[in-house]
Design goal:
This protein has 26 helices and ten strands. It is α/β, with parallel strands linked by helices. Strand 8 and strand 9 form a beta hairpin. It is elongated and about 125 Å long. The chain starts with 6 loop residues before the first helix and ends in a 6-residue tail after the last helix. It has five domains: 170 residues, 3-Layer(aba) Sandwich (Rossmann fold), CATH 3.40.50.300; 62 residues, Helicase, Ruva Protein, domain 3, CATH 1.10.8; 118 residues, Zinc Finger, Delta Prime, domain 3; 167 residues, no CATH class; 31 residues, no CATH class.
Length: 589
């Protein structure tokens, strides 16, 4: 049985033209050979598996070749090429700086550099992982690297250029190797599949290329692994099963559930994903990539950025047509926040489920109730009618409440002429605070639909009531809260302000109310006539005055700074918060 050779070694490029994805670098090196403008030191920098050492070997082989072709490639016929191909060349030396990183190793290298080449014109020294040299070794290497013998050329290769001291970098020509594009990796894998008589579909090879993350050596290693798993046929299902990659269909189904607001289906899909052993953090990252791919499909100018197979690209375009841009941007923003905070969460599953719930609620918040164009006239008539009925209804309810709260007056004597009853004060209309029906139907309601409107303060006629000799503080607070509750539906903010600020009974019988700020003072000043008239009627006090001022109240003295203090304050109002905290094992951020 023949010894198996991995694809990364079997199909290692032997010429400049066979190098994948580094055309700019190979072209520069070929031009330098043609013009005989060879530097004495090169630095090849880039991520793993992109061809640094391979290009160094091809370059070293070509510059010593005695029969370079018209395409600036080694002839593979001369003695120098044959000795290199058979690994017996004494002109090309490869060193591993990871295991030869001391000053003594560099001294041995310097002594070796003085020996001229036996065949060819140059002695080439390829030092791999050069960043592993110690600082002393770098300093010992400086002089030789700057002024080597004419026959010596150094090629340094590294994945971490930042670890090399600047004095070394300044003595080298630096070539930055890029990550290999997915399309180039797929084309090369397809070429190898044809040579090895392996049937492979584009989608499966595309997943392998994405998993390799721009490294051709990683892609070839994964390719050999899949061939060992599935035999002579590579398909999409075999690749995702062997590499434990989440199927695209899960993400397509999730986005459809988000668009429909079907959070139940989204949670069931995530449960199935967890059941198959996938990590929640990888799931969130994959969902962000899927949303990003849908977004770039919205524009023909960016669709080329989509790095998937042709059949899957069609699905992306179909789903992109159903997704509004604002939905995708909001979804990406929400998902990114949960991605950043995933590691800090105590319950990772609940964390991802909250992400899915928020994504499912995006479309629900943005639904707009709109009528067909043919019903425009009918809709406008309905809007006007409903608005008018709502205003009349609010006014009627307010009048009924006020009349019910006016105290009964003593009956007039029979002999005295009948007099007209005192006028009932007219209560201000709250119709301006009622949301417009047009806004309701069009979905344009904002958090504060009320509009400030200058209202002329009407003249309030005081109701004549029977005078009470003593005014108790308990009765004052009771009826003060009664007025606040009465206006709660129409004026919720004003009602809250009145409940949080209590009047103080003065010695002269007047009331003093200290307000936190000018805005609240103006709001209470507008309703002051109606408030006084209500209190006079309920407390049976004809002469009752209310003085307003801005200052620090008792309520303002108690502030809550920490999260624990805020929670305790809320828990006193709603004890169920303590049960919720214990049930879900929650803690403060």
């Amino acid at each position: 049985m023949e010894n198996f050779i991995v694809s990364a070694r079997k199909y290692r490029p032997a010429t400049f033209n066979s190098v994948v994805g580094q055309q700019s670098i190979t072209t520069t090196l070929k031009n330098a050979i043609n013009k005989n403008q060879l530097a004495h030191a090169y630095l090849f920098f880039g991520p793993r598996g992109v061809g640094k050492t391979t290009c160094a070997r091809i370059f070293a082989k070509t510059i010593n070749c005695s029969g370079i072709t018209d395409e600036t490639e080694a002839c593979n016929k001369c003695e120098s090429c044959l000795s290199f191909n058979e690994s017996r060349s004494y002109n090309i030396h490869e060193l591993d700086a990871a295991s030869n990183n001391s000053v003594e190793d560099i001294r041995n290298l310097i002594d070796q550099v003085r020996i001229p080449p036996q065949i060819g014109n140059y002695s080439i020294y390829i030092i791999d992982e050069v960043h592993m040299l110690s600082l002393s070794a770098f300093n010992a290497f400086l002089k030789t690297l700057e002024e080597p013998p004419k026959h010596a050329i150094f090629i340094l290769a590294t994945t971490e250029k930042h670890k090399i001291i600047p004095t070394i970098l300044s003595r080298c020509q630096i070539f930055d190797f890029n990550r290999i594009e997915i399309s180039d990796i797929v084309s090369h894998l397809q070429y190898i599949s044809d040579n090895e008589e392996v049937k492979a579909d584009a989608e499966g090879l595309n997943v392998i290329a994405q998993k390799a993350d721009g490294a051709m050596r990683d892609a070839l290693s994964i390719f050999d692994q899949i061939v060992s798993f599935s035999g002579s046929e590579i398909n999409y299902q075999a690749v995702i099963q062997n590499l434990n990659v989440l199927d695209y269909e899960y993400y397509f189904s999730l986005v459809d559930a988000f668009l429909d607001g079907d959070y139940g289906n989204a949670l069931n899909i995530f449960n199935e994903i967890l059941y198959k052993g996938f990590d929640g953090h990888n799931f969130i990252s994959g969902l962000s990539k899927h949303l990003r791919d849908i977004l770039i499909c919205k524009d023909q100018a960016t669709i080329s950025l989509l790095e998937v197979g042709s059949s899957i690209k069609t699905k992306y375009q179909e789903q992109s047509a159903k997704c509004p841009v604002d939905f995708l941007l909001t979804a990406l923003n929400i998902n990114n926040k949960f991605d950043l905070s995933y590691k800090a969460s105590n319950n990772s599953r609940l964390h991802v489920e909250l992400d899915l719930l928020q994504l499912s609620s995006i479309t629900q918040k943005k639904k707009v109730i709109s009528a067909p164009p043919t019903q425009k006239v009918e809709r406008e008539a309905t809007v006007a009618l409903v608005k008018e009925e709502r205003i009349i209804e609010v006014k009627a309810e307010a009048d009924i409440q006020i009349k019910a709260e006016i105290p009964d007056l003593a009956p007039l004597p029979e002999n005295e002429p009948e007099t007209k009853p005192p006028a009932v004060p007219e209560i201000p209309s709250f119709s301006d605070d009622v949301p417009k029906v047009e806004d309701v139907l069009n979905g344009n309601i904002t958090e504060n639909p009320k509009k400030e409107k200058k209202i002329e303060e009407p003249v309030i006629e005081t109701v004549a009531v029977e005078e009470v000799k003593e005014l108790s503080d308990e009765a004052l607070q009771e009826h003060w809260n009664g007025y606040a509750l009465k206006i709660k539906e129409e004026e919720p903010r004003l009602s809250s302000t009145l409940q949080n600020h209590k009047p103080v009974l003065q010695e002269d019988g007047s009331l003093k109310l200290t307000i936190a700020n000018e805005s609240q003072l103006k709001a209470i000043a507008k309703t002051k006539p109606y408030l006084l008239n209500y209190l006079r009627g309920q407390l049976k006090v004809n002469e009752l005055e209310l003085n307003l001022e801005v200052g620090e109240t008792e309520e303002m003295e108690q502030r809550y700074y920490t999260q624990a203090e805020k929670f305790q304050f809320l828990a006193q109002k709603n004890p169920e918060l303590n049960n919720l905290k214990k049930q879900f094992n929650l803690d403060f951020d």
